[in-house]
Write a structure and sequence with these properties.
Elements: H1 6-19, H2 36-39, H3 43-55, H4 66-73, E1 82-86, H5 92-98, H6 107-128, H7 136-157, H8 169-174, H9 180-197, H10 212-227, H11 236-253, E2 272-276, E3 317-320, H12 322-330, H13 335-339, E4 340-345, E5 356-362, E6 385-389, H14 390-403, H15 407-420, H16 432-442, H17 449-456, H18 458-471, H19 492-495
Antiparallel strand pairs: 1-3, 2-6, 4-5
Length: 507
C-alpha cells in the first residue's frame, strides 16, 4: 500500500483550507497584511507550513492538480507524442494547448503561473520567519521547493519576477522581469543548500518528502537545461556531470529492476526521487491526471472493465502517435504495455454486445481496478506522479557525458535503461540521438518531452513539432507551431498591473 502517512494526509487537508485562497496572479502577501510571523512560532506549525507548500502541487482545494495542469495540459499536449482525434465539449484549454492557440487570457496558463508563485510565496514566508540553526531541515525543503518552482517558471515563461522574501504590494508591482541568469543563480544556491542539509531520502512517515538525492538530481537537470536553449551555456554540462556523478551510486541503489514496478501503488516512494503525493478516499487528495487519458461525455464509463461504472473522464480525445506505437511494439519495448493501451472494452464481460474500442491512449497513471471502492471520483486516483525518478538522473548523466566528449563512459547508463526496457544494449557508444530516443520512450505521459524539445534548440524544436503537426494535419491539430510556442505567455492579469513588463515573443 501507499507509504503516505495518514497524519500527513490530514495535515495537507487542513493546510489546503489555509492556502487554497490563491488568486490567479502572483498574489504576494504584502508585509502590511502579513500575519505569518505569528504563525511560525514552533516546530509543529513550521512542519505544517512546509507540508502546505508541498500541497500546492496536489489538488490544493481545486478539481485538478499540478501534474494535470502543467505536465499533461501544458507539456505533453504540446509535444510530438499526442494528437487530437476528435473534439469534445470538455476542457477547451486542452484544445488550445494542442492547437498552439493559447493566449495571455488562457485559464490554465494563469493557473500554472499562480500555482508556482504560491509555492514561492509560502516558501519565502517560512524562510523569512524561521532561523537558520533551529529548523534547518524545513528550511532546506523550502529552498528546494522554491528552486523547483523557479525552475519551472524559467523554462515555461522565461524571465520573471525574482522574489526571495515577503514584500509589499508596491514593491511587488515594481519588480522587473529578472534575467534568466539571475533566476538560475538563485535556483542553484537554493538547491545546493537543500542538498547539504537534507538526508538522502526519507522513509516511513516522511516518505515522499524531498531529500538530498532529489535536490542534486534537480540541480543536474537545471544545469542540463542551462546548457540548452535559450541560455546555451556550454559550461553547464560539466557542472551537470559533476553533480550527477556524485549521486549515481545512490540512484542505482534505488533503481527499479522492472519498468512496470515503477508504476504500482505497492512501490510508491520506493524508486522516485521526488513525486507529487496522491491518495484516494474522497478527501480531495486524489490525482486528476488519469481523467484526461481519453474523452467521454459528462456521464458514462469509457473503460468499465477497469473502472467502476460512475467513473467519467474530462479531457479531449487525445491519442498517442501511431508511429511511436508501431515502433515500440515492433521493438517489443516493455515500456509500451505499461504506458499505453491500444483500446478498451465498452462494457463489462457480462454485457454480451460489448465491443473493443480501438484507441492508443496513455493509461500509465490509471488504477485499473473496478473493485476499488476507495476511488470516489474521476479526480480521486491514488497513483503518485513522479517529477524526478531514477531514469532522470541516469539519462541526464549520460547526456552530460556525451556532450562533454565522454560517450564511451555514457554507454553503461544508456544500456541500463535499455536493458530494463527489454531492448538490446547499444552496439557502440551512444550518440545524443540515442539518448533523445530513450528519453522519449522512457517518459511517455510524464511531461518531459516538450521541455526536452525546447532545450534541444529552437530549430530542432520547431521543426519537430511542425513535422508532427503536418503528419496529423487537420483543423483538430491547429496551426503550425513557431518560435512563439517555445514559451507560454505571461498571464494578462499580471501584465495589466505592471508598466515595466513586456509580453513574451509573439503573444
Amino acid at each position: 500500500m501507499k507509504q503516505l502517512n495518514i497524519k500527513w494526509i490530514t495535515v495537507i487537508v487542513l493546510m489546503m483550507a489555509v492556502f487554497s485562497s490563491c488568486k490567479k496572479d502572483i498574489d504576494i502577501a504584502p508585509i502590511e497584511n502579513n500575519t505569518s510571523n505569528t504563525f511560525y512560532s514552533n516546530e509543529i506549525e513550521i512542519k505544517q507550513a512546509i507540508i502546505g507548500v508541498y500541497a500546492h502541487l496536489a489538488r490544493n482545494g481545486t478539481n485538478t492538480d499540478f501534474a494535470t495542469d502543467y505536465f499533461w495540459l501544458a507539456s505533453e499536449n504540446r509535444s510530438d507524442l499526442l494528437y487530437i482525434a476528435a473534439e469534445t465539449s470538455a476542457q477547451n484549454d486542452q484544445l488550445d494547448f494542442r492547437k498552439f492557440l493559447i493566449t495571455a487570457n488562457s485559464g490554465t496558463v494563469s493557473t500554472n503561473y499562480a500555482r508556482l508563485y504560491q509555492i514561492i510565496k509560502d516558501a519565502n514566508s517560512l524562510l523569512f520567519y524561521t532561523t537558520e540553526g533551529q529548523y534547518k531541515r524545513y528550511r532546506a525543503e523550502a529552498c528546494f521547493l522554491r528552486a523547483y518552482a523557479y525552475s519551472e517558471l524559467a523554462r515555461s515563461f522565461g524571465p520573471t519576477a525574482l522574489i526571495t522574501k515577503p514584500i509589499e504590494n508596491a514593491e511587488a508591482i515594481a519588480l522587473p522581469r529578472a534575467p534568466l541568469s539571475d533566476i538560475y543563480a538563485q535556483i542553484i544556491t537554493d538547491l545546493q543548500y537543500a542538498a547539504a542539509n537534507l538526508d538522502k531520502v526519507y522513509t516511513g512517515a516522511d516518505a515522499g518528502r524531498v531529500g538530498s538525492l532529489a535536490a542534486n538530481a534537480l540541480l543536474g537537470q537545471v544545469y542540463i537545461t542551462m546548457g540548452g536553449y535559450p541560455l546555451n551555456d556550454a559550461t553547464a554540462y560539466a557542472k551537470a556531470e559533476t553533480v550527477l556523478t556524485s549521486i549515481i551510486a545512490d540512484v542505482n541503489a534505488r533503481f527499479s529492476p522492472t519498468y512496470a514496478g515503477l508504476f504500482t501503488l505497492a512501490n510508491e516512494n520506493k524508486y522516485d526521487l521526488f513525486s507529487i503525493q496522491f491518495a484516494s478516499g474522497g478527501l480531495n487528495l486524489g490525482s486528476s491526471l488519469a481523467g484526461y487519458a481519453t474523452s467521454t461525455g459528462s456521464s458514462g464509463t469509457p473503460f468499465p472493465e477497469w473502472m467502476y461504472t460512475s467513473y467519467t473522464l474530462q479531457g479531449q480525445d487525445m491519442r498517442v502517435d501511431s508511429d511511436l506505437v508501431k515502433t515500440m511494439r515492433t521493438n517489443k519495448d516493455l515500456r509500451f504495455s505499461v504506458s499505453i493501451d491500444t483500446g478498451y472494452w465498452n462494457g463489462l464481460p457480462s454485457v454480451p454486445t460489448r465491443t473493443f474500442v480501438k484507441k492508443n491512449i496513455i493509461t500509465k497513471f490509471l488504477e485499473k481496478d473496478n473493485t476499488n471502492t476507495s476511488i470516489k471520483a474521476w479526480n480521486d486516483q491514488p497513483r503518485n506522479f513522479p517529477i524526478l525518478r531514477d531514469a532522470d538522473a541516469i539519462l541526464l548523466l549520460a547526456e552530460a557525458l556525451v556532450r562533454n566528449g565522454k560517450a564511451s563512459d555514457a554507454k553503461q547508463y544508456v544500456d541500463k535503461i535499455r536493458t530494463r526496457a527489454g531492448l538490446p544494449i547499444l552496439a557502440a557508444a551512444p550518440t545524443l540521438d540515442d539518448i533523445k530516443l530513450e528519453r522519449k520512450y522512457e517518459f511517455i505521459g510524464e511531461g518531459r518531452r516538450y521541455f526536452d524539445l525546447v532545450r534541444y534548440g529552437e530549430t530542432e524544436a520547431v521543426n519537430t513539432l511542425v513535422a508532427f503537426n503536418t503528419h496529423y494535419h487537420s483543423k483538430l491539430n491547429g496551426q503550425a507551431p513557431t518560435k512563439r510556442d517555445l514559451l507560454m505567455p505571461i498571464p494578462q492579469n499580471e501584465l495589466k498591473t505592471r508598466s515595466n513588463w513586456s509580453q513574451n515573443f509573439g503573444y
